[in-house]
Design a protein that fits this description.
The complex is a heterodimer. By secondary structure, chain A is mainly alpha-helical. Chain A is built from 14 helices and 4 strands. Chain A has 2 domains: about 45 residues, no CATH class; about 240 residues, MetI-like (MetI-like fold, Orthogonal Bundle), CATH 1.10.3720. Helix content of chain A is about 70%, strand content about 10%. Chain A is globular. Classes of the chains: A mainly alpha, B alpha/beta. Chains A and B meet through strand 1, strand 2 and strand 3 of A and helix 3, helix 4, strand 4, helix 14 and strand 11 of B.
Chain lengths: ~350, ~400
């Protein structure tokens, strides 16, 4: 392919990537070093609100933003360096907690609390997703041709469900006296409150994520299984290899590139865990890094939002993903080089 | 024949929608509104729609959309529905207009306390008030010989009695969902103790004896609440009541009608509305109002038409037709038993929610920080100190505290 054709092919996609990925990323990066705030003046204001029959009037000092001639709020943008990162990470408090060996204090600081859960969630669900995915793929592969279609369809269902809706339905099944909690209570003959402590919520979240993502892994692995060299498998059978040995020495090495691919996708997705927090309304016990960014960004009732801290938190999440991906990427890189 | 019937039916429905029977005039100016989506707003906007040329957006996310929509020129909505706190961003940005001349022209039927005044200028027209107040099961309390609880000590004693008698496992309900709801519970308690939230230069002033008392009362209540209280919002508490699972809760007046909804409730007529329990100085609740504002960025003719339409929406017909949907501020409103709780709280001296830009930040910080105390991760003092610290960080970023 000559360069001109190549450029014509990739040009639009490069343009789109710049427009929708690179520029927003740069803008977030820049915003994390700046703070934009309205200029407030303190004025004495009398405010009257309704009581019953009479009005309640209070006169107090209030901060009001200064408006310019066109009626726009006057704002000031200031370079603050790493201040927003410091506000998110709270390094002094965190360091004090670490030096005192006080882990429970560390786990009450938002960022570290979120990081702890995000990492636990990512690293525990990863092997489970790979394991379940491979299991489902082998199951489909060995299913008789007649029922293979329906089996694939059923195993794909969880993946089709919108994440927030799926999380909400698990929430409703287990919340309060939801059907499944009622069933558990009847079975165990004791009162169960699954949403009253962190660990039960975390288990439900991980269970939900594995249930939701395993079909994706399964489909990818199933595709890979179709290209396993049948001759090697047959000779292994002749050599007396057990089912387990065939899986370990032939199938898994063959699937390795796919396993790494699925791991990478899952690491990226799971590190951005968010739907589960919203769906399970678990903020009291468990928060994630992505939720923290969201929380900074949501305006409160009076319309304030913390854009700078949200940007810093988003950048930190990205850095976290990059660090997590270094291991699998290095492996792929080595394999790639070795292949030539 | 069939086609004819369908055409006829279609013609009839067009005729019906064009008839504006209940409206006293025909609105010529196209108008739009954006407000919250609960029952009272539906009643008001439906009444406004009868005059024609009007479309309403009832949206629970209105507070995120309103500031931007009203800042556009011309404003995307002429009419907005706000409450104490949600008016602040519009007011601060100068995107809502003073209504005094329009009140003089069309507002003869308004009560004086409907006019929300800021610095002497009428900026909003309140249509209803809402407050959290005590609701209790009169049958359960009467059976055990318990008088109407006046304070939180009474509520806790009553709860202990109900639990000991084996009537209910968790006699108290509460809107303790982490975030806005939980923060609001603290605001109620702290107001009841007579505390102030913010001092000079918007510095927080909640880490004190009163704050600790408020927290301790909240924790004492959770002993008698379903252990999943940190996910329980107003709707959940309402359902707990309706299903007969709880005997007492400090719940919103706007939820009172649901207790007597025969289709949903098993406790029709068994729930009494009473004043919010007293703190040391005043009832542990805050009074909220919901009302209407008009955008600055529209022509005076549009504002004139919009205000006239609003008056039509809030008129006596609408109020008497929807009497129990809210605690209306209107001469036509007859306060029934359902409004007794809100009225008694106000009579006992409940204060308005102390809305301000800084209070919005503090409310969020409270919402995120209080759960650590209730789950036992921190003691009361540390919790309040940490909330103050996170408030200061956020308020500095918002420019409300000078560095």
């Amino acid at each position: 392919m000559n360069f001109r054709t190549f450029a014509a092919f990739v040009g639009p996609s490069v343009f789109m990537m710049l427009l929708f990925i690179a520029f927003p990323l740069l803008s977030v990066f820049k915003q994390s070093f700046y703070i934009t705030q309205p200029i407030y003046e303190t004025v004495e204001v009398e405010t009257c609100t309704p009581g019953f029959l009479t009005q309640t009037c209070v006169t107090e000092l209030k901060s009001q933003p200064v408006l310019d001639d066109e009626g726009e709020i006057v704002t000031r943008t200031e370079f603050v360096g790493l201040q927003s990162y410091r506000n998110v990470l709270e390094p002094e408090r965190a360091w004090r907690a670490v030096t005192e060996g006080n882990w429970s204090t560390l786990s009450t600081i938002d960022f570290w609390k979120a990081l702890r859960f995000t990492l636990t969630f990512t690293l525990i669900t990863l092997p489970l997703v790979l394991g379940c995915g491979l299991g489902i793929a082998l199951l489909i592969n060995s299913a008789a041709g007649a029922i293979r279609g329906p089996v694939i369809f059923v195993s794909l269902l969880p993946f089709i469900i919108t994440p927030v809706i799926g999380a909400l339905s698990i929430n409703w099944l287990f919340r309060g006296d939801g059907i499944l909690t009622a069933l558990l209570e009847w079975w165990l003959q004791r009162d169960i409150a699954l949403f009253a402590q962190a660990w039960t919520i975390e288990i439900l979240m991980m269970f939900y994520r594995v249930w939701h993502v395993a079909p994706f892994a399964a489909v990818v692995f199933y595709a890979g299984l179709q290209t396993v060299n049948q001759d090697s498998l047959e000779s292994a059978v002749i050599d007396g290899a057990t089912r387990w040995q065939r899986l370990k020495f032939i199938v898994i090495p063959h699937l390795m590139p796919l396993i790494i691919f699925v791991s990478m996708i899952h690491l990226m997705d799971a590190y951005r865990v968010f739907e589960e927090i919203i769906g399970f309304s678990s903020q009291a016990y468990v928060i994630s890094l992505q939720w923290l960014t969201f929380d900074y960004l949501v305006p409160d009732q009076a319309g304030n939002r913390s854009i700078s801290r949200a940007s810093a938190s988003a950048m930190l999440t990205m850095i976290g993903i990059v660090i997590l991906l270094i291991l699998p990427l290095r492996r792929t890189w080595r394999d790639h080089k070795g292949g030539h | 024949m069939k086609l004819k019937t369908i055409l006829f039916a279609g013609a009839m429905s067009i005729a019906a929608s064009g008839a504006w029977a209940a409206c006293s005039y025909e609105n010529e100016v196209p108008l739009k509104s954006l407000s919250a989506g609960f029952e009272a707003w539906k009643a008001v906007t439906d009444a406004m729609a009868e005059c024609g040329n009007f479309s309403a957006s009832l949206d629970q996310e209105f507070r995120e959309k309103q500031p931007e929509a009203f800042a556009a020129d011309p404003s995307l909505y002429q009419i907005g529905g706000v409450a104490n706190e949600t008016m602040i961003p519009l007011l601060n940005a100068g995107t809502i207009r003073p209504l005094d001349d329009l009140v003089a022209k069309y507002g003869q039927d308004l009560l004086p306390n409907q006019l929300i005044k800021v610095d002497g200028k009428t900026m909003a027209i309140a249509m209803m008030v809402n407050a959290q107040h005590l609701m209790y099961r009169n049958d359960v309390l009467a059976e055990l010989g318990i008088d109407e609880p006046q304070t939180y000590a009474d509520v806790l004693a009553a709860a202990a009695k109900i639990k000991d008698a084996g009537v209910m496992d968790y006699p108290i309900g509460g809107t303790f969902k982490t975030g806005w709801n939980l923060a609001q519970e603290f605001v109620n308690m702290y107001m009841g103790e007579g505390g102030t939230f913010l001092g000079e230069g918007n510095m927080p002033t909640i880490n004190n004896e009163k704050g600790i008392t408020a927290l301790e009362t909240m924790k004492a209540m959770t002993e008698f609440m379903d252990p999943e209280y940190l996910v329980s919002d107003s709707t959940y508490v309402q359902q707990q009541f309706q299903q007969g699972k709880i005997a007492m809760a400090n719940l919103w007046a706007s939820r009172a009608a649901a207790m007597n909804d025969e289709a949903e409730s098993e406790v029709v007529g068994k729930v009494t509305m009473a004043s919010a329990p007293m703190g040391s100085t005043r009832p542990s609740t805050t009074i909220w109002w919901d009302g209407i504002v008009l955008a600055s960025n529209m022509s005076d003719e549009e504002a004139d038409a919009a205000f006239r339409l609003v008056m039509e929406g809030l008129d006596a017909d609408m109020v008497s037709a929807n009497n129990d949907a809210a605690v209306w501020l209107s001469p036509a409103y007859t306060p029934g038993e359902l409004a007794a709780g809100a009225a008694a709280s106000a009579a006992n001296g409940a204060g308005p929610y102390p809305a301000s830009a800084a209070m919005g930040v503090l409310h969020s910080a409270l919402g995120n920080g209080l759960a650590d105390y209730l789950t036992g991760a921190k003691d009361a003092e540390t919790t309040l100190a940490d909330i103050e610290a996170s408030y200061i960080t956020a308020a500095k970023e918002a420019g409300l505290i000078s560095n």
